[in-house]
Amino acid sequence: MAESLIVDANLSKEEKYKALLPQIEALTTGETDLIANISNMVAALRQGMGFFWVGVYFNKEEQLVLGPFQGPVACTRIAYHKGVCGACYTQQKTILVPDVEAFPGHIACSSDSKSEIVLPAIKDGEVKLVLDVDSDKLNDFDAVDQKYLEQLMKLVESWY
Ligand code: SME
Hints:
The longest helix is centred in the first third of the chain and has 16 residues, at about 15-30. A six-stranded antiparallel β-sheet has the order 3-2-1-6-5-4, with helices on both faces. The relative contact order is 0.16. It has helices spanning about 15-30, 35-50, 85-90, 145-160; strands at about 55-60, 65-70, 75-80, 95, 115-125, 125-135. Helix 1 runs antiparallel to helix 2 and helix 1 (about 15-30) runs parallel beside helix 4 (about 145-160). About 35% of the residues lie in helices and about 25% in strands. The protein has four helices and six strands, in the order ααβββαβββα. The protein has about 160 residues and is α+β, with helices and mostly antiparallel strands. The chain is globular, with a radius of gyration of 15 Å. The structure holds methionine sulfoxide. The site of methionine sulfoxide has 14 residues, from helix 3 and strand 6.
């Protein structure tokens, strides 16, 4: 498909996800390079949803290492047991944080980040990467984000 994205800024959040997810699938179908697909996925999420920061951390070298992202510069390495990303890795489930200040051990890559959702991509029982989305507003993520981003992680899992 053409490398362009159409998501009407006036849509509701749920409608935006519904418009965006098939476009991310189309954009990545037929491309076998993992980094290329993840790069376009995070760019599409930033462009379509207007996220403050969105990116992935790969499970590699016994820690979580920064991969493709969109937004301000970020910490490059996170220990398995540290921060929201580490909690997502160790618990192998989505972690939704309405107020990062209230999350013990939260790693502040940017002082502008106020709320966060982190989701795992799991293959053969192992977390391959986590997708981290940050907002500069408190309480910005909910069950709608969780539902559609978890659907997206199924697509990511299919790339492994
Ligand atoms: N806040 C994350 C670290 C990654 S940055 O937000 C991009 C955490 O606590 O794991």
